[in-house]
Amino acid sequence: MSATELVNRVVKELETKMPMSRKQVESVISVLQNIGILRSLGEQQAKFVLQDDNHGLTSMSFAEYQELSQAQREHLALKLQDRNWNRIQSELERHSAQWMLVCGGEVLRWDSTWAYLPTDQELKEIGQTTGKVPLVFARNPKIEETNWASLPSGSTWKYDIGEIHK
């Protein structure tokens, strides 16, 4: 969809619900693009295909997903994430994002901060609208190790509830 087509469609949709001028609509679209909620117009994005089991989250409808227990949902999500870890981290890096929202093989949203992380309600609405399971993936945390306390060789230290003794 071209920029003009998108603006025309948004203006038409908003005429009855929330009247806005064409300039206001263009400003809103620009803001959404800047924070990663809306892809740049004209940007061609390949499908973000995740390797999954035949009965995994990517082949499941949102209605089927809602019937699962929380433990089943978490198990399937972790299994999917583990199987696709490198692919997910590469995509996050490509967007310079801390997290991304994927639904139906498409990256819908991402951000470089945690400020715009979708709420549970937003995820539910996306699932109900698309009929697919929305998934949020986060960047691998960077853990730095440091030699912050060196002990003389042969030293023994004992820790007793809040105190360190030699």
Structure explained in plain terms:
Strand 1 and strand 2 (106-111) form a beta hairpin. Helix content is 42%, strand content 13%. The protein has 6 helices and 5 strands. The strands form 2 sheets. Strands 2-1-3 form a 3-stranded antiparallel beta sheet, sandwiched between helices. Strands 4-5 form a two-stranded antiparallel ribbon. Helix 1 packs across helix 2. It has helices spanning 3-17, 22-34, 62-67, 70-83, 85-94, 120-130; strands at 99-103, 106-111, 135-138, 158-160, 163-165. The chain has 2 domains: 1-43, no CATH class; 45-141, no CATH class. It is an alpha+beta fold and 166 residues long.
| Portion in strands | 5-15%
Tell how many strands the DSSP assignment holds.
5
- Roughly how many Å apart are the termini? 70 Å
Q: How many distinct helices?
A: 6
Written as H for each helix and E for each strand, in order along the chain, the element string is: HHHHHEEHEEE
The low-confidence runs, each spanning 5 or more residues with pLDDT under 50, are: 40-44
Write out key terms for the chains shown.
13% strand; 166 residues; 5 strands; 3-stranded antiparallel sheet; two-stranded antiparallel ribbon; alpha+beta; 42% helix
